[in-house]
Amino acid sequence: MSKTGPITEVPAKPARSRRVASGAVAANSPKAAAAKAPANRAERAVERRAAIVEAALDEFIARGFTATRLDDVAKRAGVAKGTIYLHFKDKESMFEELIRTALVPMIGRLHAPPPSGGSVRDMVEGFAENFIREVASTRRGDIVRLIVAEGPRFPAIADFYYREVVSRGLAGMRALIELGIARGEIRHTNLARFPQIMVAPALIAVIWQSLFAKHAPLDAIDMFRVHLDLIFGERRTA
Amino acid sequence: MSKTGPITEVPAKPARSRRVASGAVAANSPKAAAAKAPANRAERAVERRAAIVEAALDEFIARGFTATRLDDVAKRAGVAKGTIYLHFKDKESMFEELIRTALVPMIGRLHAPPPSGGSVRDMVEGFAENFIREVASTRRGDIVRLIVAEGPRFPAIADFYYREVVSRGLAGMRALIELGIARGEIRHTNLARFPQIMVAPALIAVIWQSLFAKHAPLDAIDMFRVHLDLIFGERRTA
DNA sequence: TGACAATGACTGACCAGTCAGTCAATATTA
DNA sequence: TAATATTGACTGACTGGTCAGTCATTGTCA
Known about the structure:
The structure is a homodimer.
Chain A: H1 41-63, H2 70-77, H3 81-87, H4 91-111, H5 120-136, H6 139-150, H7 155-183, H8 195-212, H9 220-232
Helix pairs in contact in A: 1-2, 1-6, 4-7, 5-7, 5-8, 5-9, 6-8, 7-8, 8-9
The structure holds a DNA duplex.
C-alpha cells in the first residue's frame, strides 16, 4: 500500500485553468475588469490567496492536517506550490490561520443582535435552526469536526476555539436561559448551570451528519424541536 | 519545522528492558513463572502483542493515524519494528483492528442485562453514570474522539462503529424510553423518535473532557442529572 | 527596464515496510 | 542426562517512495 489508502477520494475540481492564452481576445475594455479578467496585481493576489484558502480548507477537512499534501492544495487552487509560501509561513501556521479565518463568520453570528421580540423559545429555536442549516449541513460543520479531531494536537487552536466560540456561545446561551427563567418560560432553574445541555443536540447533529448521515439520515431540526419541548414544555398547536 | 511540530509530546515509558542479562539470577523456580519472568514462547508472544496494542493505542490517540510513527510504537512497546509486522499486516489494518478491539468492552456493556428493578430514570441514570465514569473520563473517551476524527477517512471503522455501537445503543435507549412512556414516567412521547437526545449530554461530556477540561472542568454526572430532570421532571428530594 | 510575482525542479528529512541474519527455546539423539 | 540439531520469533539496517520547504529561473506589471 502506498497510494491507495483508506482515504476517501477527494474529487478536486481543477480550479480555473491557467491564464487565458496570452494574446487572445481583448474583448473587454482595459479597465472595466468584470468577473473574469482580474485587473491589477493586488487584486489578483487577493484572488489567489482566496483560492488557496478555499482549496486548503477542502483538503484539510477531507484528510486532516498531517495527511494533507501541499502539492494537492496547490493543484486544487490552480497555483504552484511556491505560491503558497508567498502567503503562509508554513503548513502549520497555514492550518491555524485557516481555522481562525473560517471561524470568524460563526463568531459573528454569536454577536448578532438577538431578535428580542417573541418568546425565548422562539429565539433559541430561530438560533438553532440557523445553526443547523448553516453549520450542521455545510462545510462549517466539518470544521467543527476538524477542531475536535486536531484540537488535542493543536492546543493553540483548541484554546482559540474555546475562547472565541465556546465560552462566548455558552455565555450567550446562559443569558438566554436566565431570561427564560425570569419570564417563567423555563421551569428548570438548574439549566442555567449547564447551558451545554441546550446546545448538545445541535452538536450531536453536526457529528452525526459527517459520520452517519449515509447510514441513517437525521432530521436535525425536527430533533431539536423535540428537545425544546423537553425544556419549554409541549408546544400548543403550531 | 521537522521534529518539533505542534504535537503535544507523549512521554513514552520505555517499556520493560530487554531480556535480563543471560546467566543472571535463577531466583524463581523454572516452572512457577510469576509476573516477571515470561515462561514459554507462546506466553511471551501474547505479552508482546499486548504491549504493542497498548503502545499503539496511546500513540494513535495522541497523534492520530497518519502522524503516528510505527518506530515510536515499537520503541514504546519495547519491541523492534519488525515485530509489529509479525502481528499485524500493515499500519492501516493495525489501526482498524485496534479500534475494533477497544470497542468490544463498550459493546459488552450495551448487552449487559438492564437492571430491570427500579424506575426507568434510575436505569438511565445508572447507565449514564457508568458511561461517564468509564468512558468520558478514561482513554475510552479518547477512542470515541479518535473515531470522530478518523471516521470519515476510514469508512470501514465508521460503519463498524455505527453497526456495533451506535445503532444498538440507540435501539436499547429507545426501548428504555418506550418503557418509560408506558409506565408514565416520561410524558414526551416524541422522545422515542430521537433517542439521541437522551445520550447527547454524555457525548458532549466526552468531547469536552478531551478538548476543554483544562479551560473549564465539567462535572459531567451533575450535568446529566439536570438533563434527566428535564425529561423525567424535577427529582423529589434525594 | 526595474521590481516584484510566480513557478516548479530540486533537496533532504522522514517513514512504512522488508528481509537476511541472530539466538533462545525446543526437539532429537546418543 | 548431556550434547547437538532445528526452529522460528525477533531484530534493526536498509530501501524506495513521499513530501515540506527552498530558490534559481522565468514571467508580468507599472
